Amino acid sequence: MSWEAMLPMGIISAMIFVMGTSQFVIHTSIYGKPKHPRHDAWDRAMDARDERLKEEYEKSQK
């Protein structure tokens, strides 16, 4: 009778899949790129530096 456990396990697995996929789709649609796992203070500092460098480069091209 172990097959009886397959239906609830399938439902649970499907719901976990739906939750993860919805988070991915929402984040990607808002920010335009997938979420970076383990985004810590160093990564945020590097993102800020990259943005500043891009702005400086664009200003120098004008």
Kindly summarize this structure in a few lines.
This protein has 62 residues and is mainly alpha-helical.
Tell me, briefly, the overall form.
Answer: elongated
Largest sheet: none
Average pLDDT over all residues: 92
* Structural class by helix and strand composition: mainly alpha
Strand content: under 5%
What descriptors fit this protein?
62 residues; mainly alpha; 2 helices; 74% helix; elongated; transmembrane helix; electron transport
Topology:
Layout: H1 6-31, H2 41-60
Subcellular location: Mitochondrion inner membrane
Main location: mitochondrion
Family: Belongs to the complex I NDUFA1 subunit family.
Tell me what the structure shows:
With 62 residues, the protein is mainly α. It has one domain. 74% of the residues lie in helices and 0% in strands. The longest helix is centred in the first third of the chain and has 26 residues. The chain is elongated and about 70 Å long. Keywords: Electron transport, Membrane, Mitochondrion, Mitochondrion inner membrane, Respiratory chain, Transmembrane, Transmembrane helix, Transport. It is a single-pass membrane protein. It is found in: Mitochondrion inner membrane. Pfam families: MWFE. InterPro entries: NADH_Ub_cplx-1_asu_su-1.
